[in-house]
Fold this sequence. Notes:
1 helix, 9 strands, 10% helix, 70% strand
Amino acid sequence: MLKKTLLAALVFGVATTAVQANEVSGYATYSLGQTDSKGFNTKKKVGHKVVVGLQANEFVGLEAQYTDLGKPKDKGFVVDNVNNVYSAKGTAQTRGIGGNLVGTLPLNDFKLFAKVGYHRMETKIKLKVDGLGSGSGKEREWVPSFGVGGAYILTSELDLVAEYERYKDVADAYNVDFASVGIRYKF
């Protein structure tokens, strides 16, 4: 835990130094998309995120974001120690905050970007087993992410953004892919 916190502080410290050395511009983005939780039968759910970013120069940026990766559901069967079979249903809702370091390649009215991030995610897990009852729990952890995307410049203040991100080892159990589109307001 301490190593992960120190790594996050180091990344943000280096990025902050780069931001201080240049004229900074900012942006805010809202994106909506589809999440795909690898490891669940009912995989695809709606997710969304809010991002606030600082662009240190045309090539490097730093983002803070809130992400909701949806609430995938799964159902199956549980067998007890005397071979009784029970139907079971489970959900795992994941939300959290984090930061990204973003590299951008400007191409006239279009920008390509890649990002790496680190996020403090909370997954609320619920399980119901017919005939046995139900239970729930929470898993809080730091998870890495990476992503690629593009932004089309609509006006001097607005971009249309499309991106793909992967959040690794959510709840120490599965990866979540998040494909989204959004609007970015630049200030």
